[in-house]
Structures are given as C-alpha cells and as structure tokens.
Design brief:
This protein has 450 residues and is α+β, with helices and mostly antiparallel strands. The protein has 15 helices and 21 strands. InterPro entries: FAD-bd_PCMH, FAD-bd_PCMH-like_sf, FAD-bd_PCMH_sub2, Oxid_FAD_bind_N.
Length: 450
C-alpha cells in the first residue's frame, strides 16, 4: 500500500535511466523491510508497507541525481543500508523510492585514530581494513558482519565496545558526516562537531548520509570467554565489577540469565541448564586478573577462544545485544524484547527487585555500557508476550521505579529513545527537506510542527 501515484514513480524512473534500478515486486518487498517483526506491536502496523522501486547509487553524484528526481516529482525517498534495524527505521510508510546505499563502500582515507568512509561500507569489512594499521572501529551492533556504517549511525545507538566507549551520541564517537539535501536544488553539506547530531540517529529523515568520518580505537587481541555462575545476581554483580575495573581492557560484558543460554544451540555444551552466563571479550593481556574476578564471584570459565582464532567458528558477539533476541525468537517466536537503562547503583538493587518480581515472564539479559562516564547495566529483556496492554504495563512499571525504557515498539524517533523533540533535527529538516519527502512519517516533531 502506497500513497505515491504510478505516474510520479514512472517520471522519477525515467529521469534515472542508466542507474541500477529494481522494480521486481518480490525484490522491492524484501528491500522495503527490516527486523521490525521482533515487535508484535509493529508487525500489523508495518507488514503492508512497501516501496515502489529501489535505486542503488554507486557514488554521490548518483545520489544527487536521485534526490533531484524525487524532489522534482514530489516522491518520497527512504534511505536503506543493510536493513538490520528492529524498529522499522527503513520501512517506507508512504511508498516511493528506496535508496539502497550498499554499493557505496569506498574507504576514502584512514590513519591512526580515524577513518573516512562511504556510508554503505559494511562494519566488518571496514574493521578488517583498519586492523591492518593496528586500529579498529570503537563500537558495533551484533549485526556487525552485515550492517553498514551509515545505517548504524542513522539508526543505531551503541553496541559491542560501548562498555568502554559509551554510545554513538557521546561527543567524540562521530567526527563528521556528509549529506545530500532534498531541496529544489539538492546540495552537499559537510557537518562537523555538534552539527553531526542533526542527522545522527534520525533514521534518514533529514538528509542522505553519503560519507562519514569516525574515530578508531587501538586494536587489542580480544579473547572470547564464557563464565558460568550459580545465580543471576552473582553474574550481574560480576558484570558490574568487571565493567567498573579501569585496568581491565574489555570490549563486551554480556550477562545472560537462565534460561536464555538454552536458546543458544552452539553454546549449550558450555552453559549447562540452570547456569547464568557471562559472555566476554577481554584483551588477552588481562586474562590473569580476569581469573581473579571470576574466583571472587564464584564463577567458572567454561570456554576460552584466543585472539588468533578470531573469525573462526563461534563468534560470541553474535549471541549478545539484539542477537540474543534473534536466537530466542528462532526457538520461540512469541518472545519479544525491551531496552532498558537501569539507575547508577553499584548494588543493582532495582535490577534484583525486578528480576525476582517478574520471574520467567521478563528475562533480564544485560549489556554493560558507559553512560555519563559510569558503567551501567542496560537490559535487553526478553519478554514472553501476551498482549500489548500487558507489555505497556511492564514498561510503565519499569519507568515508575526509575528505569529508563528505550521503547522498541514504535517507529517514531521521539517515542523510542529520546522521549522528547530534538529541535535541532526538526529545524535541519525544515531547512534541507522542505517538502517532507525523506522517510516520511517517522519524525513526530515534523508531523506535529503546526
């Protein structure tokens, strides 16, 4: 179902002859969707939303041409990376053209500490190149192998690496973006400093990101480790202590309480039923002190993969962050999830209270990250879904007790994580997308600006 007329689409495609255009209905439908089906609330809202055509530019000049054609004929344009998001960020609500950025993959330059790259580059491929000079990307989602850097900046918030470097929104984690506008005469703009946040995590609603400049981190030899604990709070407090330890070089601290590890088919032999697991990525230089941490919290190391085997066999990162939800749903499709930041409390009192209160209905999978300069547990809870009303009750209960919910059951930017209007993003959209053609329907501030 679209609100775009066939004549307008035909006119746009006529203007774009010679570009890589997809009109096959099956392919267009596939490239219209992401992992929105993680949410039983979003499923009925988005399942019948499709674009009319997909265009795959190979350079910025083609992006300009596509933008100009869409403005000329007043056709909506939705930018897409690999489509690994979970909130319908790249699903076109009003049809139109889908701009698939995945052919724009060039690394413009890299040097110690920073890299300049086109928006369609896959994170894993980028990381492979930067590691050749001893550096790596600071953080990545669990969809690291397939996700694009432009999609991550446009729709992501943090991930593996956030336990050390915080979130994308933190100053210093994004240095520059280059965007194409959707004005009568589209322009190319370079945003630096705080101006980058005008388009970061805006779902492509106010500019087409073509290039990014991001900082890099020193590339350590990461060992992957599984530690088992007899009870959840021992595992959680171990996670907090390890995340707080300034001398420990870490990339991932993930806590999965029983029964979550039983959804991980490839890991079952390392995590017996009834055990609560920590999935870790730790520098090999820190393995001795890690053993002391494990002993202190009555844990047991059951799996350890050396850094030289990275890329072979099991990748623990692909059982963490939103991949935890993916594995659980592959076994039980009725499971959905929440995203929660718990208060800064080293005793984890609220987490313990909620864990005992909800039992098996809400499973408190934790990802530790730095927030405001402190290590905090974020929970990507697995929820046994019954009704939308019950899900909303669970959300309200968390919020009333001081936990902050980043709601993954809405496609509106403001209703998910921000919970407020970002005036800078709205004003930028008014300037560079005056007809509201970029990914329409996703920015509440634009919809309600009158």
């Amino acid at each position: 179902m679209t609100t775009t007329t066939p004549n307008a689409i035909a006119s746009v495609l006529s203007d774009l002859v010679g570009l890589d255009i997809i009109t096959d209905a099956t392919q267009v439908a596939k490239l219209s969707h992401d992992y929105y089906h993680f949410s039983p609330v979003l499923q009925p809202q988005l399942q019948d939303k499709f674009g009319d055509a997909v265009v795959r530019p190979v350079n910025e000049a083609e992006v300009l041409k596509i933008a100009q054609a869409c403005v000329r004929h007043k056709v909506p344009l939705t930018v897409r990376g690999a489509g690994t998001g979970n909130y319908g960020q790249c699903i076109p609500l009003e049809g139109g053209v889908i701009l698939d950025i995945t052919k724009m993959t060039a690394v413009k330059w890299m040097k110690p500490g920073a890299v300049r790259v086109e928006a369609g580059a896959k994170l894993a491929a980028l990381d492979k190149q930067t590691r050749e000079i001893g550096w790596e990307i600071r953080m990545a989602p669990s969809t690291y192998r397939t996700a694009t850097i432009g999609g991550f900046i446009g729709g992501g918030s943090g991930g593996i690496g956030s336990v050390t470097y915080g979130q994308l929104r933190d100053r210093g984690n994004l240095l520059a973006v280059r965007v194409v506008t959707m004005e009568d005469e589209p322009r190319i703009l370079e945003l630096r400093g705080d101006d980058v946040y005008k388009v970061a995590h805006a779902y492509g609603t106010n500019g087409i990101i073509t290039e990014l400049e991001i900082p890099l981190a020193p590339a350590y030899p990461w060992s992957e480790i599984i530690v088992n604990f007899p009870d959840f709070m021992s595992a959680a407090r171990f996670g907090q202590a390890l995340s707080d330890a300034d001398g420990m070089i870490k990339k991932l601290v993930c806590i999965c309480p029983d029964p979550i590890p039983q959804y991980f088919a490839a890991l079952k032999s390392y995590i017996p039923a009834g055990k609560h697991a920590a999935l870790l990525m730790i520098s090999e230089t820190c393995l001795e002190p890690l053993a002391e941490f494990v002993k202190e919290f009555s844990g047991e190391i059951t799996y350890q993969k050396p850094a030289q085997e990275a890329g072979k066999g099991i990748a623990l990162a692909e059982y963490t962050w939103n991949h935890t939800t993916l594995h659980a749903r592959s076994v039980d499709p009725t499971i959905t999830y929440l995203q929660t930041l718990f208060p800064d409390d080293k005793n984890l009192s609220l987490l313990e209270e909620m864990y005992h209160h909800y039992g098996d209905e809400v499973m408190f999978h934790l990802e530790f990250l730095r927030y405001g300069g402190k290590a905090r547990p974020a929970s990507l809870q697995l929820v046994r879904y019954t009704t939308e009303e019950r899900l909303n009750d669970i959300i309200r209960d968390h919020e009333s007790k001081g936990a902050f919910i980043f709601n993954p059951h809405t496609y509106l930017i403001e209703d998910g994580g921000m919970k407020m209007v970002d005036l800078a993003q709205l004003q930028f959209k008014e300037q560079v997308d005056p007809y509201g053609l970029l990914n329409p329907g996703k920015m509440r501030a634009w919809l309600e600006r009158s």
